[in-house]
Design a protein that fits this description.
150 residues, alpha+beta, Aminopeptidase, eight-stranded mixed β-sheet, two-stranded antiparallel ribbon, 3 helices
Length: 150
């Protein structure tokens, strides 16, 4: 995947690099539509990655943080970058971790997404679906009813 990097934040101060005042930028990679990718970098590594697909509802496909980098708020930082990129669009996801994957269980994962404004919106074929409606006062390009699957 050929990608162009665009920094979307001034950076996030990594706790292990605090003495050196190294900032970790959130980078939005330019990819082939409809895919969107954001990464969080240290000077030498990618420490977190978020992937989404654009559409009537933007769907977050995955947020990954390697085990050695968990517990520092990187997933929250990337999720905020995705939500900031799409303030006037409903954003959806399936709040169900892969079986036997390290990390949050289904209940904790749903609670984590709820703290970021997502609400349960299950469908028969997608019982773990959660949606974050457009930000208050935004001007959605498509009606809320059609975004919510009604």
């Amino acid at each position: 995947m050929a990608a162009t990097k665009h920094t979307v934040s001034d950076g996030y101060e990594h706790p292990h690099y605090r003495r050196r005042r190294t900032m970790m930028p959130v980078v939005h990679l330019t990819t082939s539509y409809p895919e969107y990718v954001w990464e969080l970098h240290t000077p030498t590594d990618v420490v977190a990655r978020a992937e989404a697909l654009d559409g009537e509802i933007v769907r977050i496909c995955r947020i990954t943080v390697p085990l050695c980098h968990r517990g520092h708020g990187y997933a929250s930082l990337l999720l905020r970058a995705v939500l900031d990129h799409f303030p006037d669009v409903t954003v959806g996801l399936a709040a169900s971790p892969p079986p036997a994957a390290p990390g949050l269980d289904r209940t904790a994962l749903r609670a984590w997404y709820a703290r970021h404004g997502f609400v349960p919106a299950p469908l028969r074929n997608d019982p773990h679906r959660m949606l974050r409606p457009p930000a208050p006062g935004s001007s959605p390009a498509v009606s809320d009813a059609s975004r919510m699957g009604s």
